[in-house]
Amino acid sequence: MEFLSWKVEEGVAIVTIQRPPANALSRGLILEVDEMLSAVEDDDAIRVIVLHGDGRFFSAGADIKEFTEVSSGEEFTKLASIGQKVFERLETFSKPVIAAIHGAALGGGLELAMACHIRYVSEDAKLGLPELQLGLIPGFAGTQRLPRYVGVAKAAEMLFTSEPISGTEAVQAGLATQVFTTEELLPKSLEIAKKIALKSPVTLKATIEMLQFGKHQTYYDGVKAEADSFGTVFESHDAKEGIQAFLEKRKATFTGK
């Protein structure tokens, strides 16, 4: 691929965004994210993804130059729809995705990160949606995901002012989970990802499905769906292995079946 590369360590695909100087999101890069997900989905050796940016930034935003090539609102809507579709696939992906964010995650870059299941940030990170100062609004579901993480009031403040927040503020607001030094960010993210990769792929997929279900359904529908999923997972080989390993006081070996 032109803009993404990855390597695999102990069940974790470390995916690097490489589009210097700012890792700006172009249509091509977004489509490569989709291609990457297809490749990872079919690879049983990969159980978790860690996504990070090469160089100084995670991603400083969408490629504004590309916007100048769009001649109508209809074309702009189609561009937004492409990003929304890929990011929704990322959010509902069957394997956990961790965003390791250093430097800037702005505009489309933050929208990409918000579609990941977990976000870890460095102390020097800056996260924001500055589209309003360009006379635009976010187009890759930023207005929808941000309030779900930080609340409507905080989201409104971030959007209206266009001012980014720091990594520490992102954790305090609920937008990220943990903050590390810049040097620690990727190693710590990878360490956590490797621990997650030891879990059963069956249970990871089911958990992701339930987390997504809970975003859109009532609590009562959610607990019913959870009970159904609980029964389905119980019938898996991994569940039998996990229970047996616990009784035998040994580490379970999960195969994803």
Structure description:
- The protein has 257 residues and is an alpha/beta fold.
- It contains 11 helices and 9 strands.
- The strands form 2 sheets. Strands 1-2-3-4-6-9 form a 6-stranded mixed beta sheet, with helices on both faces.
- Strand 2 (12-17), helix 1 and strand 3 form a beta-alpha-beta unit.
- The longest helix has 19 residues, at 73-91.
Give, in order, the helices and strands: EEHEHHEEHEEHHEHEHHHH
Mean pLDDT: 95
Counting H and I runs of at least 4 residues, what is the number of helices?
11
Strand content: 15-25%
Radius of gyration: 19 Å
Strand adjacency order, main sheet = 1-2-3-4-6-9
| Largest β-sheet summary | 6 strands, mixed
Number of E strands: 9
Overall 3D shape = globular
What percent of the residues sit in helical stretches (DSSP H or I)? 40-55%
Unreliable stretches (pLDDT < 50, length at least 5) are: none
What separation lies between the terminal Cα atoms? 31 Å
Structural class estimated from helices and strands: alpha/beta
List descriptors.
15% strand, 11 helices, 257 residues, alpha/beta
Task: Please describe the topology of this protein.
Blueprint: E1 4-9, E2 12-17, H1 27-41, E3 48-53, H2 64-67, H3 73-91, E4 97-101, E5 104-106, H4 108-114, E6 118-122, E7 126-128, H5 142-150, H6 152-161, E8 165-166, H7 167-173, E9 178-180, H8 182-197, H9 201-216, H10 219-234, H11 237-247
Parallel strand pairs: 2-3, 3-4, 4-6, 5-7, 6-9
Antiparallel strand pairs: 1-2, 7-8
Helix pairs in contact: 1-3, 5-6, 9-10
